[in-house]
Amino acid sequence: MRSRSNSGVRLDGYGRLVQQTILRHQDAVTGLLPASADHQDAWVRDNVYSILAVWGLGLAYRKNADRDEDKAKAYELEQSVVKLMRGLLQCMMRQVDKVEAFKYSQSTRDCLHAKYNTHTCATVVGDHEWGHLQMDATSLYLLMLAQMTASGLHIIHSLDEVNFIQNLVFYIEAAYKTADFGIWERGDKTNQGITELNASSVGMAKAALEALDELDLFGAKGGPQSVIRVLSDEVQHCQSILHSMLPRASTSKEVDASVLSVISYPAFAVEDRELVEVTKQEIITKLQGRYGCCRFLRDGYRTPKEDPKRLYYEPAELKLFENIECEWPLFWAYLMIDGIFSGNMEQVQEYREALEGVLIKGKNGIRLLPELYSVPPDKVDEEYRNPHTVDRIPMGKLPHMWGQSLYILGCLMAEGFLAPGEIDPLNRRFATVPKPDVVVQVCILAETEGIKAILQKEGVDVETVADVYPIRVQPARILSHIYARLGRNKQMCLTGRPYRHMGVLGTSKLYKIRKTIFTFTPQASRSCLLLSPQFIDQQQFYLALDNKMIVEMLRTDLSYLCSRWRMTGRPTITFPISHTMLDETSSSVHPTVLVMLQKLQDGYFGGARIQTGKLSEFLTTSCRTHLSFMDPGPEGKVFAKSYKLSSDSFEKLDTEGWLHGLQVAEDEDTDDEVAQYLDHLLQHTTPQSNLPPTTQQGGLSRFRAAVHTTRDLMSLASKAKGLHVQNVGMYVPSRIFQASQQSVKLLSSPQQHDLDGKSHTPYTEMNLPHDEDGNVDCKALVDQLCICPTLQEQADILYMLHILKGPEWHTGLDSEPGPTVKELLTELYVRVGETRQWALIRYISGILRKKVEALDEACTDLLSHQKHLTVGLPPEPREKTISTPIPYEELVGLIDEASEKNLSVSILTQEIMVYLAMYIRTQPALFAEMFRIRIGLIIQVMATELAHSLRCSAGEATENLMNLSPSDMKSLLYHILSGKEFGVERSVRSVDSSLTTAVSICDMGAVGTTRPERTGLIRLKSEIKQNHKLLSSSWLCSCGILNFAAASVVLVLSAQSAGHTELLGKDSFSSMLEDQGSKDSRQGQWQRRRRLDGALNRVPVGFYQKVWKVLQKCHGLSVEGFVLPSSTTREMTPGEMKFAVHVESVLNRVPQPEYRQLLVEAILVLTMLVDMEVHTIGGIIAVEKILHIANDLFYEEQKALGADEHMLERDPSTGICSLLYDSAPSGRFGTMTYLSKSVALYVYDFLPTDGCSMQ
Known about the structure:
The protein contains 45 helices and 27 strands. The protein has 1255 residues and is of the alpha/beta class. The chain has five domains: 6-430, Glycosyltransferase; 439-635, no CATH class; 701-847, no CATH class; 855-869 and 915-1087, no CATH class; 1100-1246, no CATH class. It is globular and about 100 Å long.
């Protein structure tokens, strides 16, 4: 008999250790492991981690087998792993109804349980009696299922189980927006059952999704039906959110040792090597002690100060746990394994020796890893005084199987029994390795042969849809409908993937369905897909009606592809050119689109390397996916009992209607069946024309004059005075705050009172047509539609009918019953979209309640980047805060309520939310030090900027804002967020037989502006190209504006500084502009700068950490009667986002942005005292009092210098001099000078006697 090798002896030793500490506890029936001898419940997470050592030992035996007995031992160990993983699978499959419900609700009441009965796989505690929602636990199971399957284990045995795992993928793919209880089951660290978004959950979900993508769960014995599919866009959502969170762990935890599992083994979820290192050092620096690492700062679990009789903590109680948090050796095991994977053998040796020092000897000399080490109760005070000096005692589970397993796994790897690739067969450890540059393949398609000819004249070689046959082209929404079939299982009542918009990563693949290759156009072009009438999407939002916006969206998509593409093969974008992308003459391509096409052909656009060509040329280099779940079923058909789909099923994105296809004859080819199914999906968006064309004859002038008020754009803050917002006119032009004009929605009220106290009777005031009984004659209104001269008048009439009769009222137009009001509005929306009347487009979109594409996803993106949102104007309760993801309908309802039911403001709020989400995905730096985004104030500032730059009234500014194209609106938002200079160009164009003012936003370079050091907030530059004789033209005199046809006024704004006005016009135009244009516009620059910063909630870097230190030296800060108590520091640490949000919420009680910003400056001066040797600076400090003292000092000094009362006019609501608002922070007369003096006076009694003289 061959003698046992030394390695074999060592393996046998680990085998005994595994048997004694882990396997002897495994249930013989279910395969589950109890938490300990005293806790018979089986936690999902603990079970998976505990079995890793068994799996690793089995791999080691398989690799180092000396004898047949070793191979048998390897098989036995591996089957123990399979048994446990299948036991957990049985536990979860018994809750299949929860998986199905959770896909749609993401609610804590619908989640899988976190623990089960070890002996029966049954649940052990109620849905609401435990913090069950732990995305990391489910994700960890899926991740290790993938790794173990890749290593050769057969865990999944049937297609039903495959479908269940596929639905678990849907369960975790929303982890990036799902607040859960986290790895420690407590949620927010106050332990009060509050869920929060956790980096450990997001990272583990991202790793599981990547690991399962395209994995065959049957291993080498599988086929297409057993392959798991993951949508790449969901993975990248997780990555984006994870990168934005780290090194912070959650809102309430500025650092958490659990993140080690995300940045290293087992997840390897972070691709940025520098971020991995920063996060690891943050954990080691702040959490490491003599016996391990704390879980997080102020963790009270098992400390002497924790009250075991109470489940929850009092907020101020958290301070008691500081410096006495229990230390967990578990995290040293993570760090040892991390050293092995990173090749840092010094780190491996350091932590292995550290672990040896904290192990406890059990029976038979077996060394056990305890759960944690705690400070002895009689040594607490000493530990408070001298942290990390007291000898601690082991407590909790012994052994802690989770930690014991990782320790054994690390030892097996450290001694060479296992290589990193053996426990990571999917190669996740290479996440931080730089990826090769991505080349994006772009295929440009023409809608018609005519457009193809036009493009060829411009030197752009393209194909039509017919040319690319047999490859089929479909819009992205069809792919979303197809993926909704994935994972369906009738026996388990699983409906498949919830309908979600398809991202650019998903549409950049080629798909094989049956025997046909499909390509799907990206969302950026979804509403311009006019390849045939059936491609018109009636549910489209108006953003993509703007060609410039389409180009910007494509630019963003290409940039995103370059940074996020991780799949085999190149991404392929199919981009259609439709007739809407031609100019007004339809004889050439729109200039913006043409420039984009030329750049694409040049090979570089949006920061991406581009390869243009034909689809057929890209077949061999593209990423391709076979959608096997669309293959014929047992009966040879995909779709069983089918029924026709109503258009409502698409409108509501119903989850059942489109899961069924068309009923086809038995002898039809199955490929034709798929084609008919897709055609059926498309047919529901084919428009039917019912609306009569506009006429050039009158007939409605009197009616239109009255009913125009029903859609006049409401001022962005029309009711501020009614809500007692003081001095609102100070920061928005006064006319913006006039009462809303007469509205049809007031018909239910007998009288309407405006701000002047006058009452109006709606029917008599509006002169609506009446019948014999005195009621509004709706049939007469329908008749008026046939003689309307403009689209505007048609919109007014249809809005009136919408209010009076409802959207489903049949108009009887042309025939009985005739089209409904909604159908006519929908057609009008398409017509208006062709004329690009943006205010009218937004207005009709609001009436129709158009679904803003992915509005809830946009909101979730902002929230997931740890930004709270507010909609509506301050103060509360009108300004509504959104802090957690909410369903689409609820979100729209909240916006409507905050907008006070004004359609235009509501739809603009939704539009701005979408743009903010675009920017936070691509340029997160724009939102630095912003924790709350106040959309109402941002819209207000946008209107104010237009009013200042165009030097127009508030009503005109509001109308100009609403008339901005989506691309210009997005550009204006960008310049406000970034503080960069921009130009505003106003011109007049003929639309719908009338003259319309068009306003556009352009970069500084676009208007020829130089001198980047310029300090002006407004510069007026007039370029008059029209002949002097046009002055006498009648239309110019009647319209009363200085801009027309080829004449334009260009204004340049800077959010940074001020300068002088230049006048470049000639003749009489020069004299007309001279008085206004030659004025020095330096005045007002700092007030506007403060208004912008206040509206955006901008503060200096490190501001909140400094506030925390101030609170430690006083009893609290009072801001306008709201107190931020010093006790806050006992609950929260300085780096907590929760603390920053709390401070922000107090500051946001101040409605005026610039006044808020001066209060921030006052607090900044207070923070300077923190670094002084001052023990206390008083009780509750009234920050506004400091500001008023500074204001008085400023007033007296300016008065002494000869300033008159007009210059020193005070804001009646706050008492602050307008000149102080407009003063620079620094300098002899800067705000900081007076605030510093004010602070010194206010806290004089607490300052040191030396070195604090008053100047």
